[in-house]
Write a structure and sequence with these properties.
mainly alpha, homotetramer, elongated
Chain lengths: 208, 208, 208, 208
């Protein structure tokens, strides 16, 4: 009987991971749908198309930033769940909240792509960074829900990686909040903070 | 030989779950495609963009309601199939009918987002709630097909969870029907019922 | 060494199935993107919205027909691969050709949705049925590639189900061709044949 | 302890493959979203619809070329990872870079579909081939990261297939670069090189 319990629980985690992977994979791929083919009304030639494609660089930049941020969240999601032995309803809901916000990333990315070079850039950047404040909070809740001793393998709560997760992840919400607050003053600074953050997440992942 | 039969059957359930997870994951992520970047014709500045983004709250509300409802259906789908040992054609078709209707949720969500604040709100809300009436019926058929003794593990039909599924799920169709019937009188009441329902599903899941 | 070979090969089939499931799941869910929210220019009220939603019935019909047809192809794809022990390049390419055509189903469904009630219905229906002629041919090639003795489990080639696949699937191309040829005379008859065909596939699956 | 390490690592590779498969599957299916239903303004009849559908052949050609190229990359990705025993951060990032570029293929395919028969064809084709130059470079980086001895099974670095990967894949970047350089002179030649390349990849896969 205890053996069956373990077996059932592992299967449950497996399907939670598979579903989350599906949502991450679809959300990350939908980002590219925001790359729009430029519409040239007149003077259709190689020069004008090349210019129009180059002029879309804020779109490519936002696409790349969002893609890498979501990818890193997937890597970390994956590293956290590796230590979790079973899923319970609170974990499923914390995970659901995280996924809800991640599926909204293509939307906030589209807002920044559309308004980055207009006078509305401060609002667009605040909105973009604000989405990531919510995501960082959801990620922190997800982490705290996942590493409850009841769900972890025996002894896993004391491992170096779980300790490090607990220490590092609490910086997510304030740092993205700083980006959101900087946005009305300087959209460029806000985007630079968002970019610096994923480089920081990437480097810190390298250490583990 | 019996061993191989069991093995083959479990593989079959696995792929049914994987495919369903894929459809659930894509459908839930496509919901976010209905969040449209506001188009500002003139007076593009941070104030107008912020207003336009805030004015889209019915879209965010419908997106959130649909997302959580589909997520809970996935959780329950998953809990049901955990008790099922093998898939047969009736289960595959009941599952297919459920998936067919779930893929239509982004469409009915888009209808409510578009018409929520127009004089057509009653029809839009009826349509939205009506979709969930069909989904609730399909879910009940799926449940009844899945928990036939031939497919369950020995003894699973008498477990508390299967008994609870059988008792709770029959309330889905009449409750969503109530929302659909309330919609012409008060779109707000209909949406409130839909929201109350997912909170109820979530809380009842917590108990298990 | 032979043991490792078997292990590697099974893993290969597993990933082929997982990838195919992903494409099937995404393609089947994208079908719903062709359900468009009706745009009401003026006179926005519940009556006009209800009429506009009801007037879209050819879209719902085409969506349902395509969804069920793709779902049945997924069920059969799954039943065929259950008997296959390993994947080799020809199987991967036959599978790729099938997936290529299946991802085009949302496109041909959109064509029929758009032009079903215009004078262009014959061409639209021919195009729709023609897509399924190609799919049925690809499915037959996929079947023949999959059930080569080199890939099957020992003895599987003589089983009743493989014999039945070989017998039934050769009817797909001529029957869809009949629908395509009927389309210029009667679009309704062509769609009726397509519908009758998925009912036939569903019923014949029920027997196995 | 070493046993647990191995187990954990294999799980990690499994989820890396599953996520990559998801992104490949979604990206390959999204290609079909670029097939647009022709809009006929007036004179809607079977003749005009048939002509409009036929006139879209560059779209079908670009869709097919991109689909098969992405499919072959998936096959090769899969063959490479079959030899990899564990995933580490560099492999995850090399894989992420590859996926980032692959999700952009529907965009570059849409550019070629839109501008193939306009005076902007040289720029469109350069952009399309240029995307594949980046992808070929990313694929080479991914290969080199994946076949580091630390990640491979003992002895796998000397196997014929790993040797062949190392030899063949270095031709990808220069060959796609040749296509990109040929594009301003002859868009047709550039597309012919892209087509010849996937035929070459397909044939070379057949040998393994």
């Amino acid at each position: 009987m205890p053996e069956e319990l373990v077996e059932t629980s592992e299967k449950e985690t497996g399907r939670l991971e598979a579903f989350s992977d599906g949502v991450f994979a679809v959300a990350i791929t939908l980002l590219a749908l925001e790359l729009k083919v430029p519409k040239l009304e007149e003077n259709v030639n190689s020069q004008t198309l090349a210019n129009a494609l180059l002029n879309q660089w804020p779109g490519y930049f936002a696409f790349t930033t969002s893609f890498i941020t979501v990818l890193l969240m997937w890597v970390h999601h994956h590293q956290i769940l590796k230590h979790v032995r079973r899923a319970d309803p609170p974990l499923m809901y914390a995970n659901g909240l995280l996924l809800l916000l991640i599926t909204a990333v293509p939307f906030s990315t589209a807002v920044i792509t559309e308004y980055w070079r207009t006078p509305a850039a401060p609002a667009a950047t605040t909105f973009y960074a604000g989405t990531f404040v919510l995501i960082a909070i959801a990620f922190y809740i997800f982490l705290m829900t996942a590493i409850r001793p009841a769900l972890l393998a025996p002894g896993a709560a004391q491992t170096r990686i779980v300790q490090r997760f607990r220490r590092d992840y609490k910086w997510g919400p304030p740092l993205y909040l700083a980006a959101a607050l900087a946005a009305p003053l300087s959209p460029l600074l806000a985007m630079a903070i968002c970019t610096a953050l994923w480089i920081f997440w990437a480097v810190s992942t390298k250490e583990c």
